[in-house]
Give the backbone structure.
Amino acid sequence: MTEETVPARASVPGPESIESVEELLAHAYMIEVDATERYLMLADQMDVHNNPELTGLFRKLASHEEHHAQEILEQARGMTLPQLKPSEYKWGDFEGPEAAVLDEAHYLMTPWHALQMALAAEKRAFAFFDRLADTAGDDEMRKWAKEFREEEAEHVRLVEDLLKRYPEPPEDWDEDPDPPVYPE
Amino acid sequence: MTAQTAPVVKASDYKSDIKPVWCPGCGDYHVLLSLTRALAQLGLRSEEVAVISGIGCSSRIPAYVNCYGFHGVHGRSLPLGTGLKVARPDLTVIVAGGDGDGFSIGGNHFLHACRRNIDVTYIVMDNRVYGMTKGQPSPTTEPDWDSALSPGGTGLSPFHPLVIALASGANFVARAFSGDPARTGEMLVEAIRHPGFSFVQILSPCVTFRPDERAWKELVHPAPVEPTDDPARAARRIMTDDGFNIGILYRGNRTPYPLGKRGPQKDPEELGEMFAI
């Protein structure tokens, strides 16, 4: 490599670059849309791989996120939100903070794993609004950022409560006596 | 957007009712997401687009996109796509597949598709392994990748698809990363809009046979320079980078193959008579 390199994710502008309440709400809305889309993709993956418990759980998580997205649209009633291209969102990372990380999925994953994914996503969303609340340029933006931060904190608590119902699975949870693929 | 309105065309409109059968965690899910987002951004109607593929895990993609599609013969996706574009220049033709299909079985077609510079977009989901057939090394596999099927590695230099595309005449050359669907989608938009043969190599991890490729998300970095239209400069960049340089690396001005009738047309029956025995 001869030219100077910067990790790709580090080069994506972060929430401190958000400049208006409208832009902030466009981000808040897209966070929930991305999360919904991602949980639906995971639900389909689990359906195809015959993991019905996880199919149902991911669909439920998607439904919650979709509901949050609608709530944000309601909050933004009367405003004109900017129309941003996917790469114009200032996530500070490749994707919206609440989008579940697809490469962590496994066909034998358990509700504990799914909820760990969801917990990590909610925590990333909390960190996003926390960073925004710290760096927002005016009081109105700070007020919205703090409100969303509190909502995300509540979601973190909800997922943590749900996790209490599911003990961590044993270490060999991914062992399959009849796997669909055999790495030779 | 206003708070109550949604875009006219959504990425989800391009998803078919067929659920992908890729392994959970596969990078190709993100490629599908990027492609559907790109089609939405372009505002193309489903009947204006065709996705053509060969054989392999990634070559299943036409089934998952709500548009015309053809799941073709191994390594022959580019001839199919070329034929379709020549016959139906009005269609946006996207050819897609994997590194084995495109660079080994279809390697010769790859060279000549670049040379012909027909206005199609070729997406290769490169995971440096044959996933569907259980993990054999592909043309882009590192020489020292040690596996049960290639003990000690193949010892073979990997194929350099981007520089080969450039040298063969492709008019647009880019490298993307599946785990960054926002920028990958926009790169696909540019590739589709650019006249002539556009080639996009998407690094797309195979989590089943190459779990080490999960680390790619920490290795990729944006190309620190703007796209060039100078092939020599682009070639130097591509040959000296580390293989994880993400971005449009060449945006050329080469004249695409002119579609439509060329020269006087002969009656097929008249032609047949020439070959009559």
Remarks:
- The beta strands of chain B are 49-53, 68-71, 92-98, 121-126, 172-177, 198-203, 221-222, 245-251.
- Chain B has a mean pLDDT of 94.
- Residues 140 and 207 of chain B are 16 Å apart (CA to CA).
- Chain B has one domain: 21-260.
